[in-house]
Amino acid sequence: MDTSKNRLVDYALYLLLFFGFTYILFLNPGKSRPLLSLRMSQCQTSKTTQYQMAVYIDKLDEALSTSSTENKTLIICIVNKAYVEGDKPMLDLFLDGFWVGKDTKTLINHLLIVAMDQTSYERCKFLKLHCYKLETDDVDFDSEKLYMSDDFIKMMWRRTLFLRDVLKHGYNFIYTDTDVLWLRNPFPHLSLNKTMDLQISTDNFNGNQWSEANPINTGFYMINSNNKTIALFDSWYANKDNSTGLKEQDVLVRLMQKGLFRKLGLKVRFLNTVYFSGFCQDSRDVRAVTTVHANCCRSITAKLADLTAVIHDWKRYKGSSDNQTLTFRWSNHTACRNSWRH
């Protein structure tokens, strides 16, 4: 009898405890809500963090993937405000080259314009090109930077740092200055072999495409992304602060002369000015010329004047007969030659 009573008491206690916990957890709004809110808040925070991580997109990688070919190759050009403003901006003239060039129109689909300020970025978007806004740590890169001025050198090093990032993202690219006119598709004259690490333009070609004695120009080159080329850019940029008064091209020349290319095992080809020409050395053959670079020139105004003359020369060539082609001559680069006097 006592055993039955004890069991009944135990059963009653169990029921009391059960209803008590139920009341605290679910029926008492003053007590239960903070506990449930905390659990829900923790759950929502976790889900939000996971969602943000899942949807995060590397903006640079997005720009590169959108403009590159299937084998992750693209064309890169860097501009600032000085190159997009005026009656006939440098960017517009640069694009004219693709329009009047031979087999060049479709290359625009793989051209990424890298803007160093908001004005040039907005102009790029207006032209419906592939655009990327480069963060410049509040440094003013929007005005014209005269050749070899302190700001010019800073801008060149910022360019080098950015292009190193592109290589580290696994993309191959042709870098081209905006003052390079593309009159023909350059790819037939460039090696697409992956063992060719770097193909770089020259101011004056010495006749040997493997000779490090060629005076290189970083205004136009093709580079493949691999450990060797990334190491090259790492070493190149690491010398920035030990090269007062030198532009980034001078530093690369010095590293090459010290044997860095050979040390890294780089296969480097120096481009013939017959195909990849400039104002330092005109192409001898208009039937073969691929690009024309306004090198050996100091100001944007002078470059615009003489590159416009190149466009006129090119149109004159395209409308001429074979006999006239044999006597073709480029216009004198008068404005660029005079730009050094000021």
UniProtKB/TrEMBL annotation:
Which locations, inside or outside the cell, does it occupy? Golgi apparatus membrane
Against InterPro entries, the record matches this protein to:
At1g28695/At4g15970-like (IPR044821), Nucl-diP-sugar_transferase (IPR005069), Nucleotide-diphossugar_trans (IPR029044)
Taking every annotated instance into account, which residue ranges of this chain make up the domain Nucleotide-diphospho-sugar transferase?
A: 107-307
- Top-level taxon: Eukaryota
Indicate yes or no for the key word Protein transport: no
EC number(s)? 2.4.2.-
Per UniProt, what is the membrane topology? Single-pass type II membrane protein
Listed GO CC annotations: Golgi membrane
The UniProt entry lists the main location of this chain as Golgi
Q: Name one GO molecular function term.
A: glycosyltransferase activity
GO biological process terms held by the UniProt record: cell wall organization
Q: Which residues cross the membrane?
A: 12-30
Q: Which UniProt keywords apply?
A: Cell wall biogenesis/degradation, Glycosyltransferase, Golgi apparatus, Membrane, Signal-anchor, Transferase, Transmembrane, Transmembrane helix
Similarity field: Belongs to the glycosyltransferase 77 family.
Q: What is this protein called?
A: Glycosyltransferase
**Lineage, uppermost ranks:** Eukaryota, Viridiplantae, Streptophyta, Embryophyta, Tracheophyta
